[in-house]
Amino acid sequence: MNDITSKQVTLRTAKGTGFVLCSQETLVLIKNNAIPKGNIFEIAKAAGLLAAKNTAHLIPHCHPVSIDGMKIDFEYLEEISADKNKDVSTQYGIRINAEAKSIGRTGIEMELLTGISVTALTIYDLLKPVDKDLEIAGIKLHQKTGGKSDQKRYFNLPPSCAVLVCSDSTAEGKREDQSGKIIKEMLDEMKARITGYQIVPDNKKIIQQKIKEWVKQDVQFIFTTGGTGLGPRDNTVAAVKEIIERDADGITEAMRIHGQMRTPMAMMSRAVAGSIGHTMIITLPGSSDGARQSLEAILPAVFHARKMLKGGGH
């Protein structure tokens, strides 16, 4: 199974449909509740809900997820509405509509589709004594939200970003930069434009000078790495605090919570996030894991800050 521990816990939703096609005579029996095995809808709905809950036991790569809400309902597919359903091959049948919600690290669409499939199979089983030409058709996912599928909502154009590595030893050539490269790679994956990358010693004046230079160039997001610990030469947080105009504590809270769920050492990392003009500055840890986990916590949602800084609101 794929490792999803790096994913954010977000609201995931999915909507889909499916069809059970039958004869006109069978549809009349359904409407009159004259099917030998009883009311087909209540039984089919229960079967679909149970199936959705057991998806991880049926499909090998599906993770167990919490289904926080799921709704299954039905419509009659009749001649008068057939033209609206081009993906079905008959004029009579039942349309299955389903919606599901989950707060978790992975999507809910497979649970939704499993639920629709078993709902359709159950209806098929209940109708087969009276109709030999049944057909299951058009099981389809129409919408999903949450996770990567929401990426475009946070920015229309690729954001411009700069990475500032704050480390005495790296600036002196004694240590190779790792965290800065990781930040660049993760920003590349988000289709961001890397307009600046520089290594400087952990010196307040030098850090502030470089940040101000990038602000003048209207770099939209500046990510620093290093200097967020408790050591005597960890000056990055203090340097950034002195020059930001507005703080954004929610960003640092998200990073620390995400990190704390993975290692207790995250509580030792100081951090600051805030804006100067229309530029957002975010300090990240100097360790590779710390930088990666901090970005996992805030990307791509943090890019929405640019719109807010420009007066666009939420």
How would you characterize this protein structure?
It is a single chain. By secondary structure, the protein is an alpha/beta fold. The protein folds into 2 domains: 10-149, 2-Layer Sandwich (Alpha-Beta Plaits); 155-309, Molybdenum Cofactor Biosythetic Enzyme, Chain A, CATH 3.40.980. The protein is 35% helix and 24% strand. The chain contains 11 helices and 10 strands. The protein has a 6-stranded mixed sheet, with helices on both faces. It has a 4-stranded antiparallel sheet with strand order 2-3-1-4. A hairpin with a 2-residue loop joins strand 9 (273-276) and strand 10. Helix 6 runs parallel beside helix 10, helix 7 crosses helix 8 (236-243) and helix 9 (249-260) crosses helix 10 (288-298). The chain is elongated and about 85 Å long. The model has no long low-confidence stretch (mean pLDDT 91).
